[in-house]
Amino acid sequence: MTDFVLFDEEFQQIKEVIGRLKADAQAKVVFIVDKNGQQIAAQGDLESLDTTSLASLTAGNVAATDGLAKLIGEKEFPVLFHEGEKDNVYISIVGQRVILVIIFDERSSLGLVRLRVRKATQDLERIFVTIQRKVEEEKERRQEGIDSPFAEITDEDIDSLFRE
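Given the sequence above, the corresponding structure tokens read:
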């Protein structure tokens, strides 16, 4: 996705999917980050987290792991899992576009998270395909001059504006 544009309708759908994932996986936090480390959407207990740093570090982690994968002849490692004493972090690449991050504790399990992520990933991929289609349609409209507020303005109109 060269142009990342997030339309309100799809943003609401993304929030709904990750909210459902948080509940179904019994996770503490679920969020989506782009591969540049910008947080797109989040659900859960965010007050105690530095989400900006977490998003950046997650993107860096994925980039570093991609480098490791290439070194050993793999295309990528689409799933990363970090197990801690209290909390665990499950990271999944969605449609080679964004990074899905799930933070969970002992109330959940890796198996449950993996199962719920599979369904959520399908839903998110559909949403991102819709976003991509809308971006392409918008580009086509701009190239054709359709719906542009400046499409009907001529050079003469601009000249007459500045003469007055």
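The mean pLDDT is 88. Try to locate this feature in the token string yourself.
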